[in-house]
Write a structure and sequence with these properties.
Blueprint lengths: L33 H10 L4 H5 L11 H13 L5 H10 L1 H7 L6 H29 L7 E10 L7 E3 H25 L1 H7 L16 H17 L3 H31 L4 E3 L6 E4 L5 E12 L2 E8 L4 H14 L7 E4 L6 H9 L3 E4 L10 H4 L9 E3 L4 E3 L5 E11 L5 E9 L8 H5 L7 E4 L1 H14 L2 H24 L10 H28 L1
Parallel strand pairs: 1-7, 7-8
Antiparallel strand pairs: 1-5, 2-3, 4-5, 5-6, 9-10, 10-11, 11-12, 12-13
Amino acid sequence: MSKAKTKQVFKQYSPGQNLLLPPNLGELIDSHHLVRIVSEVVDNMDLTVILDSYVGGGTSAYHPRMMIKILLYAYAVKIYTGRRIAKALRQDVTFMWLAAYNRPDFRTINNFRSGLLKTTIEELFKQMLDFLLAHSYIKFENYFCDGSTFEADANRHKMVWKKNAKRYQAATEQKCRELFKQIDQLNEAEQIQYGNKDLEEVGTTGQAVTKEQIAAQSNKLDKVIAVTTSKRLKRKAASLKKKLSTHQASIDKYERQQLISENRSGYSATDEDATAMKMKNGEVLPGYNVLIGSEDQFITGYSVHQKNNDGACFKDHVKQFEQHGEYEPAAIIADSIFGTQENYELMDDKEIAAYVKFPLYHRERSRKYVENPFRKENFIHDQNKDSYICPNNRILRFRYVKTDRSKNGYISFSRLYECENCQGCPFAKDCKGTSASNRTIKVNQSLEHYKQQARNNLKSEECDILKRKRSIEVESCFGDIKKNQGFRRFHLRGKQKVKTEFGLIALAHNLRKIHLKSTKQAV
């Protein structure tokens, strides 16, 4: 006899049923959820500076504390565009709870991010550092520094190159000079006056063509058009005037391109602040160079630059300390690209210990390099006579002080010494190569002093610990941002807005790190 089949019982499901009381969204969110960390940290921030920036009058505005919360949480969960954030506010329970049912549209979100935050992001980051210090997440002792390139929100196929602008301008100016000669031929009176010589306005080939010269030639054509009765000459003059106007517009465009480029190789037509940079995958794309400092994998400083060389950006990066609350670390740990005289001097002036290699640090430790007798370091220095003696006992005497200027504008001084006579020396080829002149050496005493300080610091036991930590500090931060968060390209244009966006990225990274630590402590 078969058993009776048991009827399946389902839980109640009534989609259209109304609730007697509105639901409490907080009950639906875990007590250790990231969104609660974001809300708690922002609630503890002093936003007086941001609140004071609001001007009274008009309709009521969304509270900036709420706007900051939803932006930071959005960046922490990999939502970077205004439309997607606005969508999450309509659909995601965590966003609804965080915004207390407020629903700013994407325009309001974008305007807040690109407007108010553009001028107050530094204050917000300062408040984050205050929070991290107050809760002992960081001590601001060791500052691990490095840089990485991020792609700009720009068309990769619309790069404007400074060298091309110069070349095109020169070609256009040459066309103008040729037009000047044709204009000269139209005016018989001036042709008789000047003979076979160019007009004063024309100048010589190779000199820049000015607006005044083009205006003078244009006026000359106006006179020809007004005076002559020949229709052919009038058409010719009108055609030349039109070409002059076109060339003037082209010259103006090329001059503007060079002005925008400044000391850069070029820029993107869709984001004029973006510079062509080599990305990690080897592509050359419009982008920005971002330098950060970290401690215990918290981002404790950041800056955005238009130069690809990290060492050349370091001085401006250090200036950010003042904007981030004037926090200055006890020590800075960085790789050899930062090891320049300018950077060593900067850290020395601020009394910051420099655990920073210089470019030839590893090479000079090799046996082959150390034992090379023709290195200037192996020449004997006679301090009394201020001269050097080479391995063949020939004297290199002081000649003059050489002044060097870096691309940053930093000026350094070196003493140049030259051998009295290298002729007949059996070691000449090994010592100075194929150069026909005598062997010279250049000694920068200030740089040598800083390099010796660096050697002493890098040989210490403390540095061994810091060097091991450096490989897992800054690179871990960039790896988390690029790989885990998928943030490799900015979504805003212009250096100041890009800086604002990376400020949000840095804040969101720190909030995720706080959440991770608090979760481990809870377990």
